[in-house]
Design brief:
The protein has 16 helices and 28 strands. It is an alpha+beta fold and 649 residues long. Bound molecules: flavin-adenine dinucleotide (FAD). GO terms for molecular function: FAD binding; oxidoreductase activity, acting on paired donors, with incorporation or reduction of molecular oxygen, NAD(P)H as one donor, and incorporation of one atom of oxygen.
């Protein structure tokens, strides 16, 4: 019998779906030693999630991943279809799919397999240090509680079992891929896989891994969650939905826009126009769900789903020759009672929240969970921040999960409900009510309503040590992601979105809205800040190793409100455009809120509610969320903020 290999690694990620791959991406950008395993021999190829929300697109862009935006179908309009007084469906309204002005992106759609491909390619291009290892699953977990307080210790031990491809590939039936190959809507087979591989006497293909952090990104049936004894709270509903990804042949006029169709008595249908002529149809399967009792979803065929869709969309015709994927599912709206154990074992994604897919949230929120977690683990592992910051994960993301389930309940009920016949029909859902909830939900659905509460990383008001003054940037909500407007590069006149200056690379940022620095008084204040930031006592020197670049831990960016032509970059203090012996001056740190030559004026001061003379410093976390707003000369508040969690060099 072969000996069992033992090794150490900083992070083990279980599950290579969107949540796990996002986390692996963060950790690879931060050069953290991590492994990611998945029990399936391959990524998903078709079906499942397809909606990408604004915030997810901003996040992907911050890693330089722009392939979703380029390859996807951009969904710009929603049409509402409802029965008229004769029961015939009519278009009753149109509205933008994403409210304007929310983000530089709008909702777009592309199947989840492509997203996973982009993550995998990106990991490869980004040093190839973290690769998804398949098919492997964890079979035992032990936690040494005596080591939890020591950030250098490896308190977690997992036994990993290597499977054969055969063992790890569930039966997929025949014909069209039914998408249940790796889905949160099927029964779990993890225990069966562990048992059958043990029975097959394949000892020797196990290994023991000691790790600092274990992250369960292993989906709705999470094995990691079960080991921790955490519970999912919530309920299953009886409503059965079918999903078809087809190339439709139809005379329905709005097949290339997102449509919410409520028929008089045949149920509801959602149309999602996708890439490559594909259209996704979400259909309420009335016949199947009627009659009470449990329904065997595996017996649902694409033909049944199509027949249900045809009834809803009549008098228009609908058929197809080409079906890429289908599934039938029942909605379960549930959220985990906890998301971490002692800030060493974490859960993210569907392991924490499951709900209906129609609002296009699961993949997005899953990616955003691990986007929140990745940099925190990275900074702790790199010895830059204390373990304390890891507590903010539960505080920040559990609330988002609860909000998500509440949103989904509202949205699903509305969508599954019967349309009102007229104003006196109190049990039916009126079109006005539907549109109101739809509009209210749009900002949430875009991922842009997330507002992290005060904690060690977020200071929302003067707390005595950090003298936060929110009114200095009255339209920059602290705790929310920093919005984007164009600013003009001082050195080369190039207009650029502010968010593009905030790549996901683990750095905190001080965005100095310096005011009109062509005014000598305001310039003197800015110069004094520059002297402080260059000094040994300043926050940059306190947390940046001497051998590292000055901007590698905290980056200072300036956005001034002077006319660009009235400012000379070379005259500014070095802290604002650091000099490197081999690379010269840094020309990408100072920007003007000014008219650009070809792309107009971003008006960032106005849009952020910042006075053009008074200015302020906006402290931004590595994930682009606003941490605090302080006065330009309030260096003591900067010190107090970072002293809460950063480790001095
Ligand atoms: P998963 O994608 O489930 O990934 C978990 C991974 O862990 C899998 O690769 C699995 O093989 C692996 N794994 C599980 N157990 C183990 C184990 N014990 N050991 C090792 N590996 C393990 N979301 C949207 O945002 N927009 C949409 O439009 C949308 N539409 C959807 C449509 C349908 C029909 C369905 C079913 C879902 C849809 N979703 C949508 C939801 C979305 O697919 C999920 O929310 C998302 O995939 C969750 O990502 P995850 O990484 O948390 O989990």
């Amino acid at each position: 019998m072969a000996t069992t290999i033992e090794s150490e690694v900083d992070v083990v990620i279980v599950g290579a779906g969107p949540a796990g791959l996002m986390l692996a991406t963060w950790l690879s950008h931060l050069n953290v030693r991590a492994r990611i395993i998945d029990k399936r021999p391959s990524k998903i190829m078709t079906g499942q999630a397809d909606g990408f929300q604004c915030r997810t697109l901003e996040i992907l862009d911050s890693f330089g991943i722009d392939r979703v935006w380029k390859e996807s179908n951009h969904m710009l309009e929603v049409c509402f279809w409802n029965p008229d007084k004769n029961g015939v469906i009519r278009r009753t309204g149109r509205t933008p799919d994403t409210p304007s002005g929310l983000s530089r992106f709008t909702e777009c759609v592309l199947h989840q397999g492509r997203m996973e491909r982009f993550f995998l390619d990106h990991l490869k291009e980004n040093g190839d240090t973290i690769r998804v290892e398949r098919p492997i699953l964890p079979s035992e977990l032990e936690i040494d509680t005596s080591k939890l307080e020591d950030p250098t210790a490896y308190p977690i031990t997992v036994r990993l079992r290597h499977l054969t491809d055969e063992e790890a590939t569930p039966s997929q039936g025949t014909g069209i891929p039914n998408g249940l190959f790796r889905s949160n809507i099927t029964a779990d087979d993890t225990e069966d896989l562990i048992k059958s591989s043990a029975d097959s006497n394949r000892a020797g293909t196990d290994e023991i891994v000691h790790t600092k952090y274990l992250i369960g990104c292993d989906g709705a049936h999470s094995w990691v969650r079960k080991q921790l004894g955490f519970k999912m709270e919530g309920e299953h509903t009886e409503i059965i939905w079918g999903v078809l990804d087809v190339t439709p042949i139809t005379d329905f006029p709005d097949i290339r826009v997102r449509c919410l169709i409520h028929s008089a008595s045949a149920g509801s249908l959602m149309v999602i126009p996708r890439e490559n002529r594909v259209v996704r149809l979400y259909i309420q399967l009335k016949e199947v769900s009627e009659g009470g009792g449990a329904v065997d979803r595996s017996k649902v065929t694409p033909g049944q789903i199509l027949a249900a869709a045809q009834k809803i969309i009549a008098p228009y015709t609908l058929t197809y020759e080409q079906c890429d994927w289908f599934a039938a599912y029942q909605i379960a709206q549930r959220v985990a009672d906890r998301v971490d154990l002692s800030e060493r074992v974490f859960l993210a994604g569907d392991a924490v929240h499951t709900h209906s897919p129609k609002a296009g949230q699961g993949q997005n929120v899953s990616i955003q969970d691990s986007y929140n977690l990745g940099w925190k683990i990275g900074l702790v592992v790199r010895g830059q921040a204390t373990l304390e910051i890891l507590k903010t994960y539960a505080a920040e993301r559990l609330q988002v999960a609860k909000d998500l389930i509440a949103f989904d309940r509202k949205f699903s009920k509305l969508f599954s409900g019967r349309p009102a016949k007229d104003v006196s029909d109190e049990t039916g859902i009126s079109l006005d009510e539907f549109r109101k909830v739809f509009h209210q939900g749009a900002v949430f659905a875009a991922g842009l309503s997330v507002d992290y509460g005060p904690n060690i990383l977020v200071v929302k008001e003067d707390d005595g040590s950090v003298r936060c003054v929110p009114s200095l940037a009255s339209k920059v909500p602290i705790g929310m992601r920093l919005a984007s407007h164009k600013v003009v590069n001082q050195a080369d006149a190039l207009p650029i979105e502010l968010q593009r200056l905030l790549p996901s690379d683990g750095r905190f940022r001080l965005i100095v809205f310096a005011g009109d620095i062509s005014n000598p008084g305001i310039r003197a204040r800015y110069d004094r800040l520059g002297v402080y930031l260059s000094s040994q006592a300043g926050v940059i020197s306190t947390y940046t190793p001497q051998t590292a670049a000055r901007d590698s831990v905290i980056e200072v960016l300036t956005v001034h409100s002077a006319k660009r032509h009235h400012v000379e970059l070379q005259g500014l203090p070095e802290a604002f455009h650091p000099f490197d012996r081999t690379r010269g001056w840094d020309y990408w740190k100072v920007y003007a809120d000014d008219e650009s030559y070809h792309e107009g004026h971003g008006r960032v001061y106005e849009n952020f509610g910042i006075d053009r003379d008074e200015g302020c410093i906006v402290v931004v976390r590595p994930d682009g969320y606003v941490a605090a707003v302080v006065k330009v000369d309030d260096t003591r508040s900067l010190e107090a903020y970072f002293a809460r969690f950063m480790i001095r060099v």
